[in-house]
Specification:
CATH class: Mainly Alpha
CATH topology: Globin-like
Order of helices and strands: HHHHHHHH
Number of helices: 8
Mean pLDDT: 88
Number of strands: 0
Shape: globular
Radius of gyration: 13 Å
Largest sheet: none
Oligomer: single chain
Number of domains: 1
CATH architecture: Orthogonal Bundle
Structural class: mainly alpha
Length: 127
């Protein structure tokens, strides 16, 4: 997990705490919205992922709260709003997402990550 956090921090220009929060929020979203087998494969390939997910279950600020009120939690746009509510700019959200999915492809494989991206409407535009 430390390698992923370091890569995200560098790519997005954010501190490790915010990178960790973003990873937890994204993984929780994937667990809720994605195909169970592939998300489990991803989480299993990232040592420490479950602890990061448990520590970062909520959205951020007003935008995150509004996204949570949308039917289905707002999907990918709701996740983006939650990440921005946590303190990321739109550019940083894209950097975090791209780096996280690239790392996921390295650790869990292209098949698992492709299935996750394919199963969640709109996710492909962020990764």
């Amino acid at each position: 997990m430390e390698e992923l956090i370091a890569r995200i921090s560098a790519a997005a220009g954010i501190d490790a705490g915010l990178a960790t929060k973003a990873v937890g929020m994204i993984l929780n979203f994937l667990q809720k919205e994605g195909p169970a087998a592939e998300v489990s494969q991803l989480v299993g390939a990232l040592p420490g992922a479950e602890a990061v997910m448990a520590a970062n279950t909520g959205g951020g600020g007003l935008m995150g709260g509004l996204a949570g009120m949308m039917p289905g939690g707002g999907g990918v746009m709701g996740l983006g709003a939650s990440l921005m509510g946590a303190g990321l700019s739109m550019g940083q959200v894209q950097s975090v997402s791209r780096e996280m999915f690239a790392f996921g492809r390295e650790k869990a494989g292209e098949d698992a990550m492709g299935a996750i991206v394919g199963a969640i409407p709109g996710l492909g535009q962020f990764v």
